[in-house]
Design brief:
The protein has 15 helices and 18 strands. By secondary structure, it is of the alpha+beta class. The chain folds into four domains: 4-93, Uridine Diphospho-n-acetylenolpyruvylglucosamine Reductase, domain 2; 97-215, Uridine Diphospho-n-acetylenolpyruvylglucosamine Reductase, domain 3; 220-329, Alpha-Beta Plaits; 337-420, Alpha-Beta Plaits. A seven-stranded antiparallel β-sheet has the order 15-12-14-13-17-18-16, with helices on both faces. Strands 5-6-10-8-9 form a five-stranded antiparallel β-sheet. Strands 1-2-4-3 form a four-stranded mixed β-sheet, with helices on both faces. It catalyses: (R)-2-hydroxyglutarate + A = 2-oxoglutarate + AH2.
């Protein structure tokens, strides 16, 4: 444990009042959205500059103190959980947009900038930051970079990685590195920037990021389609993709929709009750595009792939249709869901989903199971809801026993045990199902280079 003398020394490195040790702060900043590990940090420190972050990291190296980064704490893998007396480095006060370049269509910001803040800034400049997800109103850019966040627009725009033009980072050794410097073309050896994206703070801390922006999409239009079964997903996706440039193709089951509608604040998309639903979005740039979408809908109905559907006719209806998908995670949170975030190549989704659904049904006959995800990029979210008669620990233990079969299936399909939530502590013990022993050895060797004393978010990704 860190003693009072070290805490007093830490306080000299940042502004007065920016080191907290009270119980409420330790609990709040020591956790993320996961509920599997009790937070137990020693202190929370709030740096306001690159120099202060560097000073904290050097202090931690000197005294061999473990550091855990904290952004919006919306993660789902316990990557931002401090459960073993670490010092949490919270970036809430490094939350400024520093520069904008109209020609390069780039914006330089501090890591504590909230995702929605960047989206709104881009909109003010008549541009677009396309990485989007349900927690955009509270997640921070530094955390997005640390987990290579994905979300609902990946089919068109890709992951966070695609939008990082440059980074400034403080390594685990306390060195300040400026990586790529906003360049589009840079063929000068290893792209160290990419190592820090998705590293979950295990190599160092992002202290500044230059993010690329895009043109604003025009006349976004959404359709929600009711499907009869898993097998209808891929032909429906292919039919629309062959004629339209989709910005999203999402999927959710009837159980997910039932949970949303039970709240009473969003109308049902249509009267028919279907086993599965797809939400797709595109830019209706012309009457020709809108007509093509309706023709595709009719074609899918004729083929038996679609049972019913609706197309947005206004901005409010577009928002309501998106809430049917976007509000799922928040709506089921009170049910203490056990989450798996898995992916395979898009073409293998239906067979993969069928196998997993059979495994889950056989082993959890008394549990409510919800499926949803970003089907257009092969990412599925498996959520098992806790029954009222089980304690949280007993419930998680029962769910974990089936992980072996779930992840063995992922491995056979050459998939990933974590598509977009990261590894953290919740998936750490299963990393070998997606990465070979040689790959993991290389990852550990890379960490040793950037973090020789092992102080940066230890125990995350691997032991």
């Amino acid at each position: 444990m860190i003693d009072a003398v070290l805490i007093d020394e830490l306080k000299t490195l940042v502004e007065p009042g920016k080191v907290l040790t009270d119980a409420d702060s330790l609990n709040t900043y020591g956790k993320d959205w996961t509920r599997q590990f009790a937070p137990a940090p020693a202190a929370i420190v709030f740096p306001k500059s690159i120099e202060e972050v560097q000073a904290v990291v050097r202090w931690a190296n000197q005294h061999k103190v473990a550091l855990v980064p904290s952004g919006g704490r919306t993660g789902l893998s316990a990557a931002a959980v401090a459960a073993h007396g670490e010092v949490v480095v919270a970036f809430d006060y490094m939350n400024r947009i520093l520069a904008f370049d109209e020609v390069d269509r780039s914006v330089t910001c501090q890591p504590g900038v909230v995702t929605e803040q960047l989206q709104n800034f881009a909109e003010e400049k008549r541009l677009y930051y396309p990485v989007d997800f349900a927690s955009a109103g509270s997640s921070q850019i530094g955390g997005n970079i640390g987990t290579n966040a994905g979300g609902i627009k990946v089919i068109r725009y890709g992951m966070t990685r695609n939008w990082v033009a440059g980074l400034k980072v403080i390594t685990g050794a306390g060195e300040l590195l400026e990586l790529n410097k906003g360049l589009i073309k840079n063929a000068t050896g290893y792209d160290l920037r990419q190592l820090f994206i998705g590293a979950e703070g295990t190599l160092g801390f992002v202290v500044e990021a230059t993010m690329r922006l895009e043109r604003q999409p025009k006349n976004l239009t959404a359709m929600v389609l009711g499907l009869p079964d898993f097998d209808a997903l891929m032909p429906t996706l292919h039919a629309f993709q062959n004629r339209l440039d989709l910005t999203a193709f999402e999927f959710f089951s009837d159980r997910c929709l039932d949970k949303i509608l039970a709240r009473g604040d969003i109308p049902a998309p249509f009267e028919s009750h279907c086993p599965f639903y797809a939400l797709l979005e595109f830019e209706a740039l012309s009457e020709e595009v809108a007509n093509a979408a309706l023709e595709l809908f009719e074609h899918c109905v004729e083929q038996g792939w679609v049972l019913d559907g609706v197309i947005s006719q206004s901005e409010q209806q577009l928002k309501n249709l998106w809430r049917l998908r976007e509000d799922i995670s928040e709506t089921i949170a009170p049910f203490t869901p056990y989450k798996n975030d898995i992916s395979v190549t898009v073409s293998r989704v239906p067979a993969f989903l069928k196998e997993l659904d059979a495994i889950v049904a056989a082993n959890y006959p008394d549990f409510e199971v919800l499926w949803y995800g970003h089907i257009g990029d092969g990412n599925l979210h498996l959520n098992i809801l806790k029954p009222d008669n089980l304690s949280r620990d007993e419930f998680f233990a029962r769910c974990a026993t089936v992980n072996k079969w779930v992840f063995e299936t992922v491995e056979r399909y050459n998939g990933s045990i974590s598509a977009e939530h990261g590894v953290g502590m919740t998936k750490r013990d299963y990393l070998g199902y997606s990465r070979s022993a040689a790959e993991i050895a290389c990852m550990k060797a890379i960490k040793a280079v950037f973090d020789p004393n092992g102080i940066m978010n230890p125990g995350k990704i691997f032991v």
